[in-house]
Amino acid sequence: METCPRLGTIFLDEIGEVDTSIQVKLLRVIQTRTFNRIGETRPRQFVGKIVAATNRDLAAEMKPASSARIFTIGFAAI
Questions:
Q1: Contacts made by residues 1-8, CB under 8 angstroms, sequence distance 24+
Q2: Which residues contact 35 (CB under 8 A, 6 or more apart)?
Q3: CA 20: distance to chain centroid?
Q4: pLDDT score at 49
Q5: What is the pLDDT of residues 39-58, one digit of tens each?
Q6: Which of 14, 25, 11 is nearest to 70 (CA)?
Q7: What is the pLDDT of residue 2?
């Protein structure tokens, strides 16, 4: 099992292809900087860096803003 150090960097490849329900959960982690491991009840804090990539044209997808692309648009704005 691989884990990211507390001050490490997470790389999310092809974030535009991730299911919307997962995008919403990832957005919550990015906003709050906290997460819960599976089976744990104590929240953990992540203070590292997050890098995301996609081959989608984010500028074009931001024009007809739909709820299905909220996460991708949020990343484009960061």
A1: 4/46, 4/48, 5/48, 6/45, 6/46, 6/47, 6/48, 7/47, 7/48, 8/48, 8/49
A2: 29, 43, 44, 46
A3: 11
A4: 87
A5: 999 998 888 888 888 887 76
A6: 25
A7: 59
CA atoms within 13 A on the CB side of 65: 7
Condensed to tens digits (0 to 9), the pLDDT of residues 11-26 reads: 888 887 888 788 888 8
**Six-digit token pair at 70?**
């909220």
- Among candidate residues 7, 17, 5, the one with its CA nearest the CA of residue 53: 17
Q: What is the pLDDT of residue 77?
A: 47
DSSP 15: G
Structure tokens at 36: 């819960």
